[in-house]
Design a protein that fits this description.
2 domains, 11 helices, alpha/beta, homodimer, TIM Barrel, 19 strands, Lyase, Ornithine Decarboxylase, Chain A, domain 1
Chain lengths: ~350, ~350
């Protein structure tokens, strides 16, 4: 593949792979009668959002009211804000309600009353279930709190119970398809039990590993996965995807090569990659996996990685077989965590040279 | 201090402390007859740049040609780009030369000839010296390469040798003022030796720890430190500054409090903080130090920290004495690494409520 000689680091998007990833998840959800409300925090691009729209997706998930506004401006009017509501957000929620119907995560009854008093249009809420991963949410054992919130939703004018949401971050510890399926099992059972207790509840889950590899979603009403749009090196190591499913690549100029030391300084540091890493088998950190793309845009894994990052510098080390690459003008890596890497750019460049704009920052 | 109830996370700037930090470094450099060319990658703000200008600073240091353009647009015309030059940058270098005189980091003779052929105006170059920290630069033992580059600079029409630069990242491993002074000693000796060998060379160094604590800079022609404008929790732990020198704070809404578990979920994740951390004495990671600001805007360290981050979630844990703070609408932290945190925002809010815009991303 011919790539440009870059003036700065850039994110390369294989739009064919990206569209295939979207299509596959849409079809899987459709076959399972599960509504796909994909999380758009990964790509944060109106243009990529439209690719979902072309495959029939109607509703989306975002992290913040500001991100919801960005997509509402492009016509999305069915939006879940998948982060615990807090009161400072109320004015932007009102503004969003002018054009979109919203679903919020609410975790206490007081906030239900607060919102009911503030809003003039109806809003729906999820109760987020904490499966023990201890990010946000409520333990399913807090039955009286859950009952009280659902009851309040029945009685209040503007605020109505929608269902239960869970993000099982434990699947990210897996290292195989089998591991993912085993690690999600207890969460699936937990959600099935919630559905038995509250049959009116919509059951919603969202981690990309289980959404990618579970053979069926019959227990799910909604899927909110997002990372599958690009995948990344972490998802590949987890077992969520094949190499050919990865749609996002990081092109980094080689700024200084030390071929005798099997290393180079790339322009690609923490402000380009983020500082997320995976641990390789030998226990060392990997901040970006060295690859090459062949003429068919297939990925070849090379023996090299970003072993450390400073603000602008990426310290690339390579094995003997890959040292010729140090003399190139640039190298190509797979981002460790595409959500955090994409968050640091204002556009993608497709393999055909098209610029795809995205939202910047929060 | 009265703070706003935020709609989203925000960066609070104590502009008085920031201006004091600038003034102190300007005066220290002046007393040492050392030219301060501060690194502007930390604040990335034209407005804060003007505060330096008011104290008489004429030249600056940046990381990239794009960052140089941003500051050149505000009138800066004496700019060092402190990252190894690569050929993809040549067109933007030409554009920058229309309004600014530049100094680049160049590490091989071929690039000197390439630049000489491409440019129509003179440019100066540093040879970056690697003291063994193995980021970028050339070992001082590569005498023939260094000589050849200096000789080339004497003969070429547009490209002239300016001096030696070193960033000694090893000072970041220190945990006391004494430790910083000891760890910089061998680098200072190395640079003194370079000056003896090449008396025409300007000697330039830039790490904030040594710039902050060394009693004198008599060996230095130029200082390019940057982080001192704000400092941060890492610099405080290193021993570079006192608590009262820290000018940047991170305000995070509390999204869900678990007072019985001494923890809360804050809106403040990897996309707000970056994933840089320091290790606390017990070996656990600290992604943001919990503090409070009193009525005089003095910092009180509280027994709490962000112990982990996901994309949007900050997982705050607190000791018994600080658990009341979990019931507030927001908490205040000191960023671990202010350069990376500031890079994730498009503005600062001063304690007086003034909005100070900054550059976003690269």
């Amino acid at each position: 593949m011919q790539l440009p000689n870059p003036e700065r680091p850039l994110l390369l998007l294989d739009s064919n792979v990206c569209k295939d990833n979207i299509k596959r998840m849409v079809e899987k959800c459709r076959e399972n009668s599960c509504l796909l409300r994909p999380h758009f925090k990964t790509h944060q691009s109106q243009q990529i959002g439209r690719w979902f729209s072309e495959y029939g997706v109607k509703g989306i998930t975002v992290s913040t009211p500001a991100m919801a506004l960005y997509f509402a401006e492009d016509g999305w009017n069915d939006i879940t804000i998948a982060f615990p509501f807090y009161r400072g957000q109320i004015n932007v929620i009102k503004k969003l309600q002018e054009n979109a119907s919203l679903r919020l995560f609410i975790h206490n009854e007081n906030d239900l009353h607060f919102i009911n008093n503030e809003l003039e249009k109806p809003i729906r809420f999820y109760i987020e279930i904490d499966n023990g991963y201890h990010r946000s949410g409520i333990s399913p054992s807090c039955r009286s709190e859950i009952e009280a919130m659902i009851d309040a939703g029945d009685k209040l004018r503007h605020v109505h119970f929608h269902g239960f949401y869970m993000h099982d971050g434990r699947t990210y510890q897996s290292r195989s398809r089998k591991g993912i399926i085993e690690s999600i099992e207890s969460s699936v059972e937990m959600m099935k039990e919630m559905k038995n207790l509250y049959p009116e509840a919509n059951i919603s889950m969202g981690d990309t590993p289980s959404a990618s590899v579970l053979p069926s979603f019959e227990y799910l009403d909604e899927c909110t996965a997002g990372n599958f749009v690009f995948y990344d090196w972490m998802q590949y190591k987890i077992g969520s995807c094949s190499l050919d499913d990865i749609a996002l690549f990081h092109l980094m100029p080689v700024a200084q090569a030390f071929p005798n030391e099997n290393r180079a300084i790339c322009h690609g540091g923490a402000v380009h990659c983020s500082k997320d890493y995976v641990l390789d088998d030998d226990g060392s950190k990997n901040f970006g996996q060295l690859i090459s793309l062949d003429n068919q845009n297939s990925v070849n894994i090379l023996d090299g990685k970003l072993q450390s990052l400073s603000q602008e510098h990426g310290m690339l080390t390579v094995g003997e077989k890959s040292k010729n690459i140090l003399m190139n003008d640039y190298v190509c890596t797979i981002p460790i965590h595409s959500c955090l890497t994409a968050n640091l750019y204002d556009h993608y460049r497709t393999l055909n040279g098209e610029i795809i704009k995205k939202r910047i920052l929060s």
